[in-house]
Amino acid sequence: MGHAAESYADTKVLAGYYQHFPTLSEAGDCERFPRNHVRYSAKFKPLEWLNALHMRIGRSPLSTEHAVLAAYDSAAQYHGCLGTTDELTTLRSTIAAMARGLDGNPYLLGIARLLMKRILISRLNTRRTILKFYQANKPFIESRGRLRAPLIITGCPRTGSTLLQRLMAEDPNARSPFTFEMESPLPPMIEGTDPLADPRIAQANDALKVLARTAPGFLEKFSEWHLWNATEYEESYIYMLGHNGLSVMDAPNAGEVFLRAFTELAYHGPVLRYERLFFTLLDAYRPASSHWILKAPNYAFAFPFVIQEYPDARVVITHRNPFISLPSVCRLLESWCIAFTRDRCFDKHRFAKLASMLFTPCFAVPFQFRRANPDKTQQIFDCMYDELFADPIGMVKRIYRFFDLDVTPGFEQRMHRYLHNNRQGKYGRHAYSLAEYAIDPEAFLENHRDYMSHYGFKLEGVVNRKRAGSLQI
What we know:
Helix 3 (about 65-75) packs antiparallel against helix 4, helix 11 crosses helix 13 (about 270-285) and helix 15 (about 320-335) crosses helix 16 (about 350-360). The chain starts with a helix and ends in a 19-residue tail after the last helix. About 50% of the residues lie in helices and about 5% in strands. The protein has helices at about 5-10, 45-55, 65-75, 85-105, 110-135, 140-145, 160-170, 180-185, 200-215, 220-225, 235-245, 255-260, 270-285, 305-310, 320-335, 350-360, 360-370, 385-390, 390-400, 410-420, 440-445, 450-455, and strands spanning about 150-155, 175, 290-295, 315-320, 380-385.
């Protein structure tokens, strides 16, 4: 691991990361300290020399903070429509906190720093081009585009929200964003064209192929848990946060200091206004006949701002016993984060504590908001995981009835076809457990007793569960 890394690892600040160099007594614990499943090419060795320099002096060409903030500031002339000076300053400070967290993490590989830096800058550059395009075409976009009463799906990850979004996106009268149009939104798709013939699909697939060659095994492992490709309907708010310099999947790599800032609420106003602007732009050129379907777990920990920015939103909150979904979330995030970590430094026990910081607000914030605002009941529907998977189409019909929407015969036929082509367990199943991540169920139950009791979630029958759930949800 190198003397530079060892000396760096002695500093107290590293207690805030999930990785650490295992002691001699821990080194043999392969379950707690798994190997990195990605085997990077030897041609990236020079990046590790730069990485050693970075760890020794705290900066190098791989450093992120200055470059990311410069990319954010390059759009300053267009920021006025997104929020007040104070709100935008808070957003910028949160971006800086993430970049500093990544720069301060000595357990990251050199190639990981390079990839994260490029992705963050690329997303921020997309934001600048969107804001510039919007200003240049504002009369047309604002006269034609609309984002009224969107149907927003949120809740904790691994609770069925992906299945629900992709089923609802089969509604020919609705619109849900494709991966490729959030990665490369311009030029926007035009009404009447075939979205599956869009040239950006090939571009996005080429980019994925480059990533697959750069990090062999990375996409294969991640796709076991979440099918990610150019033509799938994807998580809108995760992409909107990305456009604003905040990577949800890389958040654990930025450490506990950043995660505490990330779970605060103040920066969400500008991001949600950017999202509204973004989808209004897309709708102006290819409108939804009825409504937009947006989905992401991260809407949940921004819940008060979501309701404020979308007062007419129709919201579906998905629920599943956290004793099952939390270790599943840990495994999902592990499949991403371990790929960027020095071999044998990934500590599952420490990782679960940081992953829990992302997980807990996804049920706690909406729950607390609803208790304080009972008048919002009519715009929020609770979708229980077991009921969804027992009868997916029946659940969609219940949601549509609740919001006074129609499930047409054509829509129902398309949902049947989707389910036939994407059967539960099609990509295999995985075992995961609370014990694997050293999650204390009694402490969790005590800390969140009101939520657990309200939805009837219990510990019985879960602690010794060896197989929990299926993939692609």
